[in-house]
Specification:
Elements lengths: L12 E6 L8 E11 L4 E6 L2 E6 L3 E6 L12 H52 L2 E10 L6 E10 L6 E2 L4 E6 L1 E7 L6 E3 L4 H4 L12 E8 L4 H5 L1 E2 L4 E7 H4 L11 E7 L6 E6 L8 E3 L1
Parallel strand pairs: 10-12, 11-12
Antiparallel strand pairs: 1-2, 1-5, 2-3, 3-4, 6-7, 6-17, 7-14, 8-13, 9-10, 9-15, 12-14, 15-16
Length: 288
């Protein structure tokens, strides 16, 4: 190639074909022709591989060419900005969705915790509370032919919550099921009575019907039984039942007969008892 033509390609992007002596194939180099050094016999090329030089003697052909656009510059600045905004919108949407999901999880966990606490307290109260029956005493008629009254000594169980006698039920099963409640309307609650034989005369018998029972406070230091019909941990009471009114056909519980009863407080475990009337009554007050 004539050296005088090389200056025409300086500063242009060219396709340069070279062939070293002894090589069978020619090599093609693409780049910008930066300078021509006739003195040393080199041309300086800025190609994709970097800045380099080629011997003028190895040049076979040189041709101006169009430089291809690099892939990294494929998008315009405006296009890149639009892509960035879209990514930001998706990112913000993901954060919002995560925040809503976290809020739902937190609210659900709080509700479950509150519910668990409530259930736990109710379960503890149901398990620990209740009544305990201490003694059963009967009172016969003057002829000692049948039991006319029944006295049930009771107290709260160990560790029990206070027991509301207004909400306490007495179930009696004898041929039929009878449910008795406290005769609170007439305030038939007597406190600090210790004479067992006199207990059956302390209440107004006309107020003790087949569906009501009376209460005698045996130990009531704070007067909770007489004032509000509530039993504390250290209190003790006696429930009086009119058997003659309950068993109206026989006027009471005949000798040798029995019935089953259950004392059910508002909260807690109930107390089961069985009344067995002896075949003969030696005294009017009978231990059952």
């Amino acid at each position: 190639m004539e050296k005088k033509y090389l200056e025409r390609f300086v500063g242009k992007y060219c396709k340069i074909v070279t062939k070293e002596p002894g090589d069978q194939k020619a090599n093609v180099v693409k780049g910008t022709l930066e300078d021509v050094d006739y003195k040393d016999g080199f041309i300086i090329i800025d190609s994709e591989q970097g800045l380099g030089c080629l011997s003028i003697n190895t040049l076979v052909a040189i041709k101006p060419s169009n430089k291809k656009t690099s892939k990294k510059n494929y998008f315009k600045d405006e296009d890149q900005a639009m892509v960035g905004i879209g990514t930001l919108i998706v990112f913000i949407a993901m954060i919002l969705v995560a925040a809503v999901a976290a809020s739902v999880v937190i609210q659900t966990s709080e509700q479950l915790q509150q519910r668990a606490n409530a259930v736990g307290k109710q379960t503890i109260r149901e398990v620990s509370s209740g009544t305990s029956i201490i003694d059963l005493t009967g009172y016969s008629d003057a002829g000692k032919t049948k039991l006319e009254y029944l006295a049930i000594s009771m107290r709260p169980r160990a560790g029990s919550y206070d027991i509301d006698l207004n909400e306490t039920l007495l179930y009696v099963i004898y041929d039929t099921l009878t449910v008795l409640t406290l005769n609170w309307a007439d305030n038939d609650v007597i406190s600090n009575t210790v004479n067992v034989s006199g207990i059956f005369h302390t209440l107004n018998h006309s107020n003790l019907t087949s569906t009501n029972f009376g209460v005698v406070g045996l130990r009531d230091e704070d007067n909770s039984i007489t004032s509000s019909h509530g039993m504390g941990t250290n209190d003790m009471a006696m429930i009086i039942v009119n058997l003659s009114a309950m068993f109206s056909t026989t006027g009471g519980l005949p000798p040798g007969e029995q019935f089953v009863g259950r004392l059910v407080p508002e909260v807690g475990s109930s107390a089961l008892f069985i009344v067995n009337a002896p075949t003969t009554f030696d005294q009017r007050v009978v231990e059952l």
